[in-house]
């Protein structure tokens, strides 16, 4: 399994996309801060560019890093429901690249509970 994880890490570092399990489905992941990698995900999914992608993050601090005007209940929401099958939508700050959220004012955050996927996100955040 470690050899497989090394190949996955290498693929991500080289701007590729990988399929990883989440608690609900398998997802297509790439390094969110790499525009070419994200473009590759859009191409593979045949997803229109006006449909934003989520940021897959590993911690509450990651959410704070990429959002603004957070509600007062956000930390309680994260502690209660994440990691897990919930998307939290917040105002995006200027750290969110336009190629991830299609230049929208908001961004969705996911924190998958699958241990392998979550560990990989911790290493390469955000995906």
Automatic annotation (TrEMBL):
<feature type="domain" description="YrdC-like">
    <location>
        <begin position="2"/>
        <end position="127"/>
    </location>
</feature>
<keyword id="KW-0067">ATP-binding</keyword>
<keyword id="KW-0808">Transferase</keyword>
<dbReference type="InterPro" id="IPR006070">
    <property type="entry name" value="Sua5-like_dom"/>
</dbReference>
<keyword id="KW-0548">Nucleotidyltransferase</keyword>
<keyword id="KW-0819">tRNA processing</keyword>
<dbReference type="Pfam" id="PF01300">
    <property type="entry name" value="Sua5_yciO_yrdC"/>
</dbReference>
<dbReference type="GO" id="GO:0005737">
    <property type="term" value="C:cytoplasm"/>
</dbReference>
<dbReference type="InterPro" id="IPR017945">
    <property type="entry name" value="DHBP_synth_RibB-like_a/b_dom"/>
</dbReference>
<dbReference type="InterPro" id="IPR050156">
    <property type="entry name" value="TC-AMP_synthase_SUA5"/>
</dbReference>
<dbReference type="GO" id="GO:0005524">
    <property type="term" value="F:ATP binding"/>
</dbReference>
<dbReference type="GO" id="GO:0000049">
    <property type="term" value="F:tRNA binding"/>
</dbReference>
<dbReference type="GO" id="GO:0008033">
    <property type="term" value="P:tRNA processing"/>
</dbReference>
<protein>
    <recommendedName>
        <fullName>L-threonylcarbamoyladenylate synthase</fullName>
        <ecNumber>2.7.7.87</ecNumber>
    </recommendedName>
</protein>
<keyword id="KW-0547">Nucleotide-binding</keyword>
<dbReference type="GO" id="GO:0003725">
    <property type="term" value="F:double-stranded RNA binding"/>
</dbReference>
<dbReference type="GO" id="GO:0006450">
    <property type="term" value="P:regulation of translational fidelity"/>
</dbReference>
<comment type="similarity">
    <text>Belongs to the SUA5 family.</text>
</comment>
<keyword id="KW-0963">Cytoplasm</keyword>
<dbReference type="GO" id="GO:0061710">
    <property type="term" value="F:L-threonylcarbamoyladenylate synthase"/>
</dbReference>
